[in-house]
Amino acid sequence: MSAPRTSSSTVLPPVPPRAPIVAPAAPEAAVRRPPRRRPIRARLGPYLLLVPALIPIAVGLGYPLVRQFVLSFQEYGLAQQFGQPAEWVGLRNYAELLSDPYVWGVIARSIAFCLVNAALTMAVGIALAVLMTRVGRAARITLQVGLLLAWGTPVLATMTVWQWLFDSQYGVINWLLAEPLGAEGMRQHSWIIEPASFYFVATVIVVWMSVPFVVFTVYAGLLQVPEECMEAAQLDGANAWQRLRYLSLPMVKPVLLVVGLLQVIWDLRVFTQIYVLQRAGAPTRETHLLGTFIYSLSKEFSLAGAMATIMLVITLALTVFYIRRMLRDDV
């Protein structure tokens, strides 16, 4: 006899819902595992590699700076060169210099000369670098050769040529101003006697000698600008000036900032050009900049050391200000 079949209408009991599977929480120690520290040798390795380069720098630059700083607090002159012990005078040298209005005039002239020359050098250098990217091969090579000759010529040879150009009797500059342009008052004009024209001549010479470095550096940076970006901007309707201003120059901005910083440092401590022009007959007291003024104090080593330290502080202040502006623009 078979077992009775269950009816299809039989209701089965509901199955309770299954609880969700939750992964066990990881222990807090495993989640916040402290980073593994590298061995001391691995951390000190990059610094140890810098030691061979730092030793000659410390010997060649560190010792003179320390010696200069120590001399600025002493009374050190010609007598001390022959064995007489130096007297410690503290801040007397700094007080003597900073209380002299003439020293502040030299500092103001030096900073103004530095900023004007750096700005002109950057403007002319960028313009020539852009020109080199637009001209043909023959014109570009000619310009590059001319810049290399101007850059590679020794400073004293360059100064001799410029002195002949600005000579009061036989100079080409005076002849051009007097004959073709009709400025008869410039026929016998002495450019280095008056301070204003002296600094004009010095600016021309300094800019002439500094422009090639800026041109070649900026030109190398402009060659790295992708052609695809320039073509896309041109297809969008940007003209040549807009492509240069909003595309090329922003892309080479790091190069421009570094080159500008170097120009500020170099133009602040310019010496040879000013000294040679002074030896040619210019009034030295009215045309001193920081470099030549420190050289004029060479018989008083303590005052010269104090003035050189002041110059170093000014250079660092301008450098820090420039770097802060550079970093602020990059943010």
UniProtKB/TrEMBL annotation:
Keyword flag Protease: no
Domain ABC transmembrane type-1 positions: 107-322
GO biological process, one term: transmembrane transport
Listed transmembrane segments: 44-66, 102-131, 143-165, 196-223, 244-266, 301-323
Keyword Transmembrane helix attached: yes
Subcellular location: Cell membrane
SUPFAM superfamilies with a match to the protein in the record: MetI-like
One GO location term (cellular component): plasma membrane
Alphabetical UniProt keywords: Cell membrane, Membrane, Transmembrane, Transmembrane helix, Transport
Record PROSITE patterns: ABC_TM1
InterPro entries (UniProt xref): MetI-like, MetI-like_sf, UgpAE/MalFG_permease
Predominant localisation class: membrane
Entry membrane topology: Multi-pass membrane protein
PANTHER family noted in UniProt: BLL4140 PROTEIN (PTHR43227), DIACETYLCHITOBIOSE UPTAKE SYSTEM PERMEASE PROTEIN DASB (PTHR43227:SF8)
Family classification: Belongs to the binding-protein-dependent transport system permease family.
The protein's name in its UniProt record: Carbohydrate ABC transporter membrane protein 1 (CUT1 family)
